[in-house]
Amino acid sequence: MVVTPSSVDSLIGTGDTVRFTASGKDPKGNAISGITFAWTSSNAAAATVNSSTGLVTAVANGTSTITATGPASKTGTATFKSASVAPSLVTTLNYNVSSNASNHPMSAASNGSFYYTISDGGAPSTIRRYTLAGVFLDSTLVQLDARALLYSPVNGNFYVKIFGFDWYRVNVSTGDTAHVFTGSFAFQQSSPGISADGGVIYEHESDTVRVLDFVSGKQTAQFNSGFQTGAFPSNEAIAADGSHLFTWDGTTVYMYDVKARFITSFTVPNGNYGFSLSFANGLLWTTTDIASGTGTWYGYRLVKQ
């Protein structure tokens, strides 16, 4: 008895499905047709399986042995694992502040050549630039009360979502701004994320996620439940990579697919300021809001376990 695939180990969302198939051979190694198999899962808390079709549905993180039983109680097995991830610290970005008044760390972004962070809490905001190795280079003031700094590869520009509902294009070298959208956002304090291809903006507040078209600023979808978060301001933040969305409570990060299906959660060891959750240059970023002195942004690579 042979079950195909022999194993599944992937970041799969709750409710996603994988179909397993089974086959049998006679003593001469010839395939036997017309066999009926009964399917079972050893761990229904992680995955269930349709007893007649072999269709496996992910339920939660965990591992299950999927067994196909044929004539004469002959069996074949495969392993299904809904993989988890762990954060591995790769890069840090240090910054100095004399006070966190109008200097709260909001988000991190990258154009692939440099890292940029933005700090705010009242205009002007401060944009800081770093090498990809984490060396501070310079800073620029921008006359906006920012909640997020995002980079779009669609046109190679940076954008700021302000305290309010508007969207601005920003020159990160000069601080010059151009008003792009009025009223596209629904939540004043939200700190949105952007997809890896720059085509979609995600806005979050307290378990509601709005999906916006980057070009028009129009809402294209909305998810109203299932996103886990914490108290303000972590309830305002969302980060995105090419395939996943991330919310958090300031310590635990919750990972979803882009259809809002929960995949896994993990804890970041450093950085707990709610607004700061960001994704840039392949890394998930967080930091701590310090009153004065040296602060640090932490860039984590997410490693599948």
Q: How would you describe this protein?
A:
With 305 residues, the chain is mostly beta strands. The chain has no helices and 30 strands. Strand 25 and strand 26 form a beta hairpin. It has two domains: 81 residues, Sandwich (Immunoglobulin-like), CATH 2.60.40.1080; 219 residues, TolB, C-terminal domain (Neuraminidase, 6 Propeller). The strands form eight sheets. It has a four-stranded mixed sheet with strand order 2-10-9-6, with no helix packed on it. A four-stranded antiparallel sheet has the order 11-30-29-28, with no helix packed on it. A four-stranded antiparallel sheet has the order 12-13-14-15, with no helix packed on it. It starts with a strand and ends with a strand. The mean pLDDT is 94. It is elongated.
Please give a quick description of this structure:
Helices cover 0% and strands 53% of the residues. With 305 residues, the chain is mainly β.
Summed up, the domain count is 2
- Write down the Rg: 23 Å
Low-pLDDT residue spans? none
If you consult CATH, what is the topology of the largest domain?
Answer: Neuraminidase
Structural class label: mainly beta
Tally the helices.
0
| pLDDT averaged residue by residue | 94
Biggest sheet features = 4 strands, mixed
Helix and strand sequence: EEEEEEEEEEEEEEEEEEEEEEEEEEEEEE
List how many beta strands DSSP finds.
Answer: 30
